[in-house]
Write a structure and sequence with these properties.
The chain is an alpha+beta fold. The chain folds into 3 domains: 282 residues, no CATH class; 114 residues, no CATH class; 59 residues, Arc Repressor Mutant, subunit A (Orthogonal Bundle). 41% of the residues lie in helices and 20% in strands. The strands form 4 sheets. A 9-stranded mixed beta sheet has the order 2-6-7-10-1-11-12-13-14. A hairpin with a 5-residue loop joins strand 8 and strand 9. Helix 3 runs antiparallel to helix 4, helix 14 packs across helix 17 and helix 16 crosses helix 17. The longest helix has 20 residues. The termini are far apart.
Amino acid sequence: MSYQTIVGLEIHVELSTKTKAFCSCANEFGGEPNTRVCPTCLGLPGGLPVLNKNVVNYSVMAGLALNCHIAKKSKFDRKNYFYPDLTKGFQITQDDMAICSEGYLEIEGEEGLKKVGIFKVQMEEDTGKSLHTEDNETLMDYNRCGVPLIEIVSKPDMNSGKEARLFLEKLKSTLKYIGVSDVKMEEGSLRCDVNVNVIDKTTNKKTQVTEVKNINSFRGAEKAIDFEVNRHIELLKNGEDEVKTTRRWDDVNNQTVLMREKYTVADYRFAPEGDLLEVVLTDEWINDIKDKLPELPEEKKKRFIKDYKLPEYDAEVLTSSQQLADYYEEVAKRFDDTAMISNWIMTEILRRVENVEESFDLPFTPEDLVELLQTIKDGKINNNAGKKVLREMFETGKKPMAIIEEQGLIQISDTSEIETIVETILSENAQSIEDYKAGKDRAFGFLVGQVMKASRGKANPQVVNELLKKKLNS
């Protein structure tokens, strides 16, 4: 039997505006519970919403970055449902007239480049937060209520958990680049629900869509989808079916758990939000936002390949973070060996940086790295000494030349000095000379190692190799 997986995503992204969506309360993570609230975000009588203009600006920026059509006229709606963290008994959102629609993002899918459609991007407000205690009490923190969100609804164009993860990674990188959100999953700035069902391609029978919530990582999203795909295939094999359900992801047991039957549109009783006017955008407004939009990751990657002659993989890694890309370009302005810069950043620097997506704050400047690379390229120190210097730069923040001078790492390039060491090593290793002449390549490597050891790693390796070959072949 052959099966096709169908995956759609609903992603909620908190916007990084200074204040909330419809009031002047601070939009900041954390704080003492219930201290960043007012009558408006608490839904108290008389508290009327006033739209934050930057919520509109940031939503349009996101829509443009996601190749969406920007609606010149959109409206807000009330989504009615009961939950303790919903202060007003309804959520201000957008239903049938969202601000952005019909966009897409491209990912490297299972069979090459794939365009994943985006149904809409809508503005809405966040809810409060339930805190569960060990005494089986539930406490409410409403600091988060009214925080501005965009909900990004993809089309069901993904066919595996891996494709969904790639889409989420690309989306996160894009939104971080344009600065509309910090997209920190651990702080709830980016949250994802997945919708999954499976089609039996032989009979065309399909399972009902399952929505999975409570996913706190991209890898978790991939695992939740894979788990559901296997569960749905078993339903098809057994001739079973179920109603549309909402399940939650149990990250400890790596499985989904039934929560309830899935809500339908009718359950939410959508109605226009009477306290807010329609949002009307002009061409001038949209074009002004478009002109200020920064270079996007995909565009930057293509430019890195073209301008710096980098392989696609290197360009992909170096443009994965705005800060990392900026650092590379600052070094490249001062040092013309772009391949060498890429090699040192990717191999020696990134392995010492815990999370390049969140922070690329190094204890030394681009100018310091240029100084180190130039010293290596000029032959004043060798690669191994350079790695030692870089490690010290990370640990102490000292300048590279200061470390080189302190530790006496200047490379010996004087041919006569190295020749003396080579002759001494050859006189002490007659057997290795015989082995080399007998065609044993390891013998040459051994002799090089002995010369480097005798010079305490300071001898220029190129000169060492040349002199050894010359003397061994004479």
